[in-house]
Amino acid sequence: MLIRVLRLLRRPWTAAVAAAALVVSVLVTIPASGAATAAACRVDYTVNAWAGGYTAQVKITNLGPAASGWKLTWTYTGDQRVTSAWNASVTQTGASVVAVDAGWNGALSTGGTAEFGLQGTWRSADPVPSDFALNGVSCGDDGGTPPTTPPTTPPGTTPPPSAECGDAVICSGFEDQAGSEPSGDWRFTAPDCRGTGAVAVDSAVAHEGGRSLRVDGRAGYCNHAFVAHAADLSAVGPVMYVRMWVRHSTALPTSHVTFVSMPDSAQGGRTLRVGGQNGALQWNRESDDATLPAQSPAGVALSRPLPTNGWQCLRFAIDTSAGHLDTWLGDEQVPGLHADGVPTQDVDQQWLARGSAPRPTALRLGWESYATGDDTVWFDDVAVGSSPIGC
Questions:
Q1: Distance CA 201, CA 199 (A)
Q2: pTM reported for the whole predicted model
């Protein structure tokens, strides 16, 4: 039996740029005993498209025998061109595309999954591919009867990370904080100058447990208010994974703000920063003020706002050897906050101008505004380590 589903969703990203989300699933079941051997795989291909470009999250589910490595192939029937990829090596010749595992995610047990993402361009047509083949065997064809309720599989990250801290260097839910003043491994700091911004341990609002860190952020350059963790992060890696739960009250402003600040030895101690600008999340490098994504309308549209008045799981990965960056909001990988060393229009023109990879040495959480931007921000369940950490 063959099942194939095609679903179209639309949602605005900005007033200037609209995006469409296409989800296609191809499923081939294992034949009954005595029947001819058939492919046993499923591919969930989720694409966010806009005028002239797209990103796609691809999930492979192996329904056949275990494999020690995988190669997924397909053919574009439009004029799509792959420009970059993550968690896989993706090449394109004409309309034919080949994705090969990244080594660490090559093992596929029966029922196991692997996920990767890619970014590309198109001009006249962007149809969803349907001729997927895993290790040279087709995952299906165009026949079959669609189910009554289409499956919905949210995009995620590969390998599936644990929500526990494991051997993380930082693992804090602020439950060890006895009073309202940050203490122990967490200490207040105002790196440049101190104003009316304030930090406190909050026992009334928490993601889990009974405490969180509250930051009353104030606009204006001299209102820096952060807490710094005592851990030295110099040896974490080669890929540093950071997970935190964030809750904030006011939408990110047009002007630049920062709520995560990491001293970076590759910048001589200046900071690698996570914050917002033009209403969306962004990375910023203090030494040259480069941003990821580029602050063009198309670049901003590839990022996401930070939703207000609710806890959000924010995760990022920093490759301290290759210089790559990845960012997830919940289980969604944010395409505008992805840098893999391959130039991508409206994303990383400024970012790639500096050749050295970042090497964060410490973690600070707080609020820093460079113009307008009062906000109240809470942090909870913070973890930093050398292995992926889930929400």
A1: 7
A2: 0.61
d(CA 193, CA 191): 6
Q: Which residue has the tokens 């207040």?
A: 188
Give yes or no for a contact between 312 and 330, defined as CB atoms under 8 angstroms apart.
yes
**312, 364, 313, 310: which is closest to 197 by C-alpha?**
364
d(CA 233, CA 252): 28
Which residues neighbour 85 within 8 Å (Cβ) at sequence distance 6 or greater?
A: 99, 116, 117, 118, 119, 340
SS3 50: strand
pLDDT tens-digit series, residues 4-51: 333 333 333 333 333 333 433 333 333 333 333 345 799 999 887 777
Give the H or E element holding residue 117. Answer: strand 113-121
Beta 280-285 vs 212-217: how paired, if at all? unpaired
The residue type found at 65 is P
Strand intervals (E) in 203-270:
212-217, 225-229, 239-248, 257-263
The band of 144, judged by pLDDT with boundaries at 50, 70 and 90, is very low
Gap between the Cα atoms of 288 and 305, Å rounded: 24
Phi, psi for 132 (deg, rounded to 5): -65, 140
Q: Is the pLDDT confidence value at 377 over 90?
A: yes
Q: Which two tokens stand for residue 66?
A: 């275990």
Residue 362 or 152, more confident: 362
Structure tokens at 60: 């492979």
Q: What is the structure's pLDDT at 385? A: 95
CA distances, 33 to each of 25, 59, 95 (Å): 25, 28, 37
Mean pLDDT over each residue of the chain, to the nearest integer: 82
Q: Read off the tokens for 369.
A: 């505004």
* pLDDT tens figures, 151-189: 333 333 334 455 578 789 999 999 999 899 999 999 998
Question: Residue 331: pLDDT band by 50, 70, 90 thresholds?
Answer: confident
Q: Which run of H or E residues covers position 299?
A: helix 297-301
Distances (CA, A) of 120 to 25, 73, 292: 20, 16, 17
> Which one-letter amino acid corresponds to residue 237?
G
Q: What is the pLDDT of residues 232-242, one digit of tens each?
A: 999 999 999 99
**DSSP labels, 220-235:** STT--EEEEE----TT
Structure tokens at 83: 């420009």
**Token code pair at residue 270:** 């200046």
